[in-house]
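Homework help thread (please don't just give me the answer)

Our assignment gives two proteins as sequence + structure token strings and asks us to describe the second one. The first is just a warm-up. Here they are:
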Amino acid sequence: MMKSIDEKHTIAVEKSVYDEYCKIHPNCRNLYGVPFPYLNEMESIYGKDYATGKSAEGFVEAVENLEKEATVPLSLESSDEDVTADGSSTPPLKKVKIEQNMKRGRKGIDTAKGSQTSEFIKFENFADNINVHLSAMANAMKRAEDRETEVHDREMELAKMSDKVLDELLALEGITTDEALAAAEVFLAQPHKLTLFFKCSSALRTRYVKGLLGESQGGRS
């Protein structure tokens, strides 16, 4: 079983080792780099079994073992009963002891059931907390991935428009080469204006460029 945790409570092994482990244990995928803040609590509960390589005793096994310990052969009972002076009978001593042992056994079983139930509830709460934690992290990672995809797509779109903006400007009627170059510089410096230029119809592009160059020249003067 793979077990290597750093001070951040994350899996601290090489990614290649983790990937090989996930081939055998596919349920552990997507946990690389995920913190497990409750690991120490789990270690204190199941550490002994982990160290010896034995699996923890389950609830059903505990009950069965206690029932076996509480079982006493019926052959120990005596068929004879003591008779008192007034003629009444009393249970034999062996039978009384057997009944007492059985009561103690049942009490032990009830105690074990309560202990096992408590541990099960603790583990169930721990698992629920882990699921909530992993779900929140998955949602955050999904949102971050969506934002990165959106930014990347936007950058690619601007790059394509930047590559062909000069050709589009030179193709406009009434726009000189110098004006086309000046407008291209403005568009590359201010991408939002480049986007607006490509949204304009062919008839509006010339007017937009003329107005843009007028603003630029007015700002310089």
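The one we have to describe:
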Amino acid sequence: MAACSPFQDVSSGKPLFMAVYVTVFAGVLFSTLFIVSSLYSASNSDNKKSQFTVGSWLSPSSSLPRPQVDVIGLRNQSTSVNISSDATVENFLTRAIWDLPSPDSKIPDLASFRLTREMVKYRAKDNVIIVTFGNYAFMDFILNWVRHLTDLNVFNLLVGSMDTKLLVALYWKGVPVFDMGSNMNTIDVGWGSPTFHKMGREKVFLINALLPFGYELLVCDTDMVWLKVYVISVFGAYNIGIFLWRPTDTSKKLAKEWKDLLMANEKLWDQSGFNDLVHKVLGPSVEGENGIVFAYDGNLKLGILAASIFCSGHTYFVQSIYQQLRLEPYAVHTTFQYAGTEGKRHRLREAMLFHDAPRYYDSPGGYLSFKPNIPKALLLDGAHTLESHFSLVNYQLKQVRTALAIASLVNRTLVMPPIWCRLDRMWFGHPGIMEGTLTRQPFLCPMDHVFEVNVMLRDQPFEEFGAKIDFREYSFLQNPRLPKQVKESFLEVKLCNQQSSKCHETNQTDRKGFIKLPKHSTQEMIVEFFSLYEDVKVIEFSSMMDAFQGFHNAVSERRFRNRVQGYVGIWCCVMNKDPGHIFYDMFWDEKPDWKPVPGLRS
């Protein structure tokens, strides 16, 4: 069994956290990948130690056999929906991934989607099957997960459906799906909720159901993506919310004990239970195996993986270790983020790793973008302190606030700028960046470090918050999925001094191809200006500094302020302070004495 800690010095392998970080480390350990393997082969009667070799489990699929195997169900299935059982059943076992069913066909009876040995055998490659699972709320993550694998020519995969709505949707999308019989709600359950913990338990049930089939099982979270094919052999170690279980007696024993532990205590978190089990025995090191130790019952091997290429949300999005060391990452998991499911999705979008529907890349009202103006001194001068961090972020917030106001007036989707930070964000007190990491200062920080992405996407009452302001990630205009008609419909706007006679020639470009717009433009001027270019898909401002004078209507002003004040979150956290978090303030510049004070909401 192998695991990876993303908080480990990549040069020395030295642990980074002291006692204060133990709780976080435990969560990190579980969210990374584990390889579960026995030191003794189940078929080895003379108890000689055997080496297990894993073939190229992430490899192009070859032609697959049509096995005749006894059916073994995951559990007793039940459903409250009526899916026609007398339909002409297409053999979804043999259909290629993304091969859509005939539109005039009917979906097979729900019982046909039971997890069976035959289903697994048909999809498996080199005795390995790759599995993820979820409910309808995570359908876009699941499709993204499948798309990344099939783009790598990896097809030995299955998706477990926790509700019938997802099962039906995936069937019609041409994704190989089986029914887990969970009867779960179709909505996003939210981290830490009872239903969230139920999902973790379902993973344990799934592992226990699949291992008896005799295949090596790679279980992945839906909020991770594979970036590169990885061929492994002899005790390979991997990372990122993934489990690779070998169907040996020891791994089956661990899976069963894990399940029994959770069944006996409904309040026990699946992560805690697993960590308790694998730490029953921890050590000694395995002779001749670098970084591998004996674990669990002494018949299991636990290894540590390089988080520089199997990336957590921190090593990929914050430290960018793979870039600093000029490595090619194999996978990334959207951990260490602060805006729920919406934040995970946005992280992948920022990295251009999310397959959105075509309409996402061509909004009807077009897009507004701007070039952020950040003085070099704010980025680089002086020590990296609370004061210098907030000075840098606040300077950017003021520009984003102006851009949001203009976008709301002209009904365009705002392309957010990249956000620069001096300090990292965590859930606990820390010295600014995590000791021993490769975090550079300043660094391009994920949007959820500063903005409440989930709040920005939330539908809110118009009377109190005004119209919703759509936005896109900072990398949006560089995304290769952007259609040609959007890329080529582009206009640059340069702010000019109102005293200049040429500043008001808004229908003519200057020598550099810019359209001019006066600084401190009124609401009427902004609306009139954009009305001249309604057919232009992307309008980019050279700067947002002093672009907008303000709303002329007090009601519009109030609604806008209510909306955007909730867009910003907190920085966390000052060491040895309770509370230690500091609120960002979208209107900080209106308060002459504003300072970053822990716990104080202005």
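TA reply:
I won't write it for you, but here's a hint about the kind of observation we're looking for: The first helix runs from residue 22 to 31.
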